[in-house]
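Two proteins were folded this term; both appear here.
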Amino acid sequence: MQRRAIFFDIMIRNVNDFVEYLAKMKTPDNTSVNIYAGNSPDAKMRKKNLLLYLKKMETLNPKKIFVGEAPGFHGCGKTGIPFTDEFAIATEYFFGDDDFKNYGLEKERSAGIIWASLKGKQEMPFLWNIYPFHPHKESIQTNRTPSSKEIQIGRDILMELLFLFRFEQFYCIGKTSYNALKDVIPDAVYVRHPSHGGMKECMTKIREILN
């Protein structure tokens, strides 16, 4: 994977730079939202949560990354952390010793399944989305699959992330992320997405991956 040129005069040397870079990115059109951009309390909270998450993962030095599709409005769209809803931040031990911010206890099904799969595991994988912004339909309180243009943007962002974390194994949660990465990361492994009847298969596979 070739590194992309740096935009916005930001040289990405650490996770702080990466979050600033991410927050300044523009989405292709108004059918997706950069959940980290702007000065609203919600955007600031998501940005802070993501930075705390990245710093915590730095200390854990993860070798495995799970790449999903995109933030859903019930989960990452609220918290700023991939595959993580408000309920997880409020109840999971992983978030308990840092200053993660949370405004409620809303649950997202996919997030709940992923965190249930991680229970009891010593190894914490890095959680990410192939498109880190929220794609939606007519209403912002809907979800949709990211377009090919959005996925290309997300792949470029992921390439920047790979210079901060040295992942050795890539697992794609769902066909969208797998199809996006299989040509550039030949060893990427497909894992069925937990939605639409895939819960049991997804959980079993994740537990096998993490022993």
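Next, the second protein.
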Amino acid sequence: MVILGIDPGSRVTGYGIISSESNRVRCLEYGGVRALTGGGSTSSFAGRLREIYLRLYELIERHSPQAVAVEEVFHAVNVNSALKLGHARGIVFLAAAQFDVPLFEYSPLEVKKAVTGYGRAEKLQIQMMVRTLLRLKEKPQPHDAADALAVALCHAFKKVPNQHTQ
């Protein structure tokens, strides 16, 4: 099963694609869709959302995942941040729906516990466990990509039947 994990953000949206077969997982690709700044259409918020959408569309088209796993929102510093994060999550939902890929949501606590065994793990612990579990040569960067890989791993470890949570 190919799983696309997403850590949505309005500045950086992390993604990680893994393959899970039997009890073996391997990394296919990871990275971050960064918001460009300094003018042009991608420096506007709408342009950043467009960039996230185009990259996710390309990833789903190329890898044909059987599931998209996304991290739930647990808190935001302020209302404006929460709204922007909600827009980014909406783009993730749209991209998955366009390809009719089931979408699953996991809380940060669930993700941390599935990957590290501890629900309050720090970013560095998550990066190191993701590196170990996927046998990567180095810590996945940016940390948003490590978080996205962790979300994908969480889904792989849950053995969830293919059902939409939308």
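Residues 79-98 form the longest helix (20 residues). The beta strands are 2-7, 12-21, 24-34, 67-71, 103-106. These notes refer to the second protein only.
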